[in-house]
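forwarding from the other thread:

> can someone predict this with heme C?

sure thing
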Amino acid sequence: MLKKTSIAAAVAAASALILIAGGCAATSTGKAETAKPAQDTAKPAPDTAKPKAVDYTAMTPTALAEYLIFESGSYDLNQPTQEGTNGRARLTQDEIQKACTLKKSEELSDKAREKVMALAAASIRYPEGGIKLGDWKKGRQLAWSGFGFRTAHNPDKHGPGEAGGNCYNCHQLATDRTGGTIGPSLTDYGKIRGSSPEMLKYTYDIIYNANATFPCTNMPRNGANGILNDAQIADIMAYLFDPESPVNKH
Ligand code: HEC
C-alpha cells in the first residue's frame, strides 16, 4: 500500500502535470482513500516510498512530464479506466494521434491533414431519424461536467455518475458561469448561427469527432471515443441551440 505522505506528494505532482499538459483537465478531488494498489501484478507500480531526488527546475517540460508519469510513482498506469482498458493503454497512439504527432519544428503536411480528416469523418455515426436537439437543461449539466474518463491518478468512482462533456474547461459557453479559453467562445451560439440542418450537422460532427473539421484539434472525440452517447450529444446541442438556453440569453 502507498503511504499517506507519498500520496499527498503524488497529488501535488499530478496537479503540476495537469498544468503542464495544458491546464484543461478538471481538478481532482484528491481523495487519498481511493488510491488502490496496481491491478496488473506482472507490472508492479513503481516504488513510491523512495522517490528519486530530482531538480524540477533543471528539467524541460517534456522531461518533467515523463518523470512525473513514469518514474515518480504519482501515476498508477495499471488502474482500470472507464472505457475498460487502463492508463498504460491510453499511451498507445491510435492512427489519428500518430498522424498528428510532429517532431520539433515540423508542420502538419497536407497529406497528414487529409488522412486525419478522412479517418475522423469515417468515424462519425448519425442517430437514427437524424440529428435532433434534446433537453438543454440536461445538456447544461453535461457541458459543465468534467466527470469521468480520467485515468491513472485518483480516477473517479464511476458508479454514481455519468461522464460529462467537459466543454466548460475549454469554452466560454454562457454568461452565467465562467468557462475556459482553450477553444473559441460559444456564447450566443444558436442566436448568432441559427439552427439550419447544415448548422446542426456542422456542430454534431464537431462534438462527435472534431478532427473531421479541425484536424489535430485539442478537442476530445466525444462520440467517436464513446464519451458521450447520442442522447447526451442531443442534449448538449440543445444547450447550444435552444433559444431558452442560457447560452443564447443575455
Ligand atoms: C480540450 C479542449 C476542448 C474541449 C474539452 C471541448 N472543445 Fe470544443 N473546441 C476546442 C478547440 C480548440 C476548438 C477550435 C478548433 C481548433 O482550432 O482546434 C473547438 C471548437 C468547437 C466548436 C466550433 C466552434 C466554431 O466557432 O465553429 C464547437 C461547436 C465546439 N468546440 C463545441 C464543444 C462542445 C459542445 C464541447 C463539449 C462536449 C467541447 N467543444 C469540448 C477545444 C475543446
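The two ends are 52 Å apart (CA to CA). thats all i got for now
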